[in-house]
Amino acid sequence: MSLEHNDLKRLVHDELHIDQYKSKLGNDEDIVVMSLKVAGKEPANDIVSFVEKGYDFVLDADVSSGEMDDGDYIVFIEIERSHHSPAQVLEIMSDLMNLTDQDINEWRVRYYKSTDDHELSEESLRKMIPLSAEEYKKRYGHEEIDKLKTAAGVKVTTKAPKNPHTESLRIAAGII
User: Fold this and answer.
1) What pTM was estimated for this model as a whole?
2) How many domains are there within the chain?
């Protein structure tokens, strides 16, 4: 099947997640994982086919094995982590707008475990996405070590960063 303008109208949710899921192809520090929700398995498969055939920089694209509670599916797109990643994400999403008849300016993007919405622009993507393995490890390497410490029964001494989200959690927990 070949996709045409508006074929996926009202079927793709206007929220993109980046690095929320683990890469199935390699190490997370080497691969950026994009994910988006799609109403229905067939449209999700159409997007996977479109992305895999249309971009030589896409390492892999796949659909979640089962539907979510709301009946939607998740499409995963993996690309190499590099200084080109923000432009590549934007290229895929801009082309997807032709299929969905959506306005890219109305899309929101969330990075990793954050609940904060950001605009879908190359500038905001450059601020959010670690653009090298070294930068990724610098930001998130401690989390893997903390998981290993917890599994081994060793005390975890890493402190959460101070930001409005963690401060509100500390207040709710009665820590401060």
Assistant:
1) 0.80
2) 2
